[in-house]
Write a structure and sequence with these properties.
36% of the residues lie in helices and 20% in strands. With 269 residues, the protein is an alpha+beta fold. Strands 1, 2, 3, 4, 5, 6, 7 and 10 form an eight-stranded mixed sheet that branches. The chain is globular. The two termini are 12 Å apart.
Length: 269
């Protein structure tokens, strides 16, 4: 049995990964912002949310597409898992430390997990409310369906899940249902249908639920926030974005709502 890293060590190694990502992004003129729980952690805690165990950033779609094409240029001790690929089937990317393996204790992912930093693409947000709602509804259905087909723990008991997976594979082989990869590809096409930069607001549509909403203009003049005594890029109107996502975000949530990935991490000898 491997010797699992403490949450404190996971935080330190994840912070090291964020520093490397930040340097890489600046070297290649890639725009990004701290995102999700990492943005919230920077504002409320000036570092990690104490119970959180990963790092999130987001990138405008043009920068994201450039980022994933630079996979051969990353530092030798890092790795990019490109979206909808044989290594990583999901519609975003991961910037990883391949020397540290990970496993979420309550989920079995359909890919090899390393200590990661999630990189989410930002796309345009339709100003037609009906169109925006329709896109969100379809994407969330596709994401849930794809996860049910591919993740080994997604609200199913062992034997019903095995039967579901077998049936899904049979239907897919007959062309009667999409594979998870096809679901994720369709999600990407829907997200990209409103180009980044063509609307006042942008969003991360490819996660379930859709996570982040930002002013598009913020990526023309990014600000900075402190995270573990170091400055990182972040949107200027973070208060507006965090309130849309979390409500009264400066108030700590009840203990039972403090979500984590239940991460198990260990160094590869």
């Amino acid at each position: 049995m491997p010797s699992y890293l403490s949450l404190e060590t996971i935080h330190q190694e994840s912070f090291n990964l964020l520093c490397k990502f930040d340097a890489f992004a600046h070297e290649h003129n890639l725009r990004y912002s701290l995102d999700g729980g990492t943005l919230l952690g920077a504002v409320r805690h000036k570092g990690f949310i104490p119970w959180d165990d990963d790092i999130d950033v987001s990138m405008p779609r043009p920068d994201f597409e450039k980022f994933i094409q630079l996979d051969s240029s990353v530092p030798s001790d890092c790795r990019i898992l490109k979206p909808i690929s044989s290594d990583f089937p999901l519609p975003y990317a991961k910037f990883c430390n391949p020397a540290i393996r990970c496993m979420e204790s309550n989920v079995r992912a359909p890919y090899t997990e390393y200590l990661w930093l999630d990189v989410f693409p930002l796309d345009g947000f339709s100003q037609n409310p009906e169109t925006a709602r329709g896109q969100s509804t379809k994407v969330q259905r596709l994401l849930v369906d794809a996860a049910r087909k591919s993740f080994k723990s997604f609200g199913y008991k062992k034997y019903p899940k095995a039967i579901y997976l077998w049936l899904t594979k049979q239907l897919a082989s007959l062309g009667m249902t999409q594979s998870p990869m096809q679901d994720y590809q369709e999600v990407t096409e829907i997200a990209k249908s409103v180009a980044f930069g063509t609307t006042p607001y942008c969003r991360t549509l490819i996660t379930a639920p859709a996570m982040s909403f930002y002013r598009t203009e913020d990526f023309d003049d990014l600000s900075h926030l402190e995270f573990n005594d170091r400055q990182f890029d972040a949107v200027k109107h973070y208060d507006e974005s965090l309130r849309l996502t979390y409500g009264n975000y400066m108030e700590l949530p009840p203990v039972e709502d403090r979500q984590t990935h239940h991460l198990l991490a260990w160094r590869i000898e």
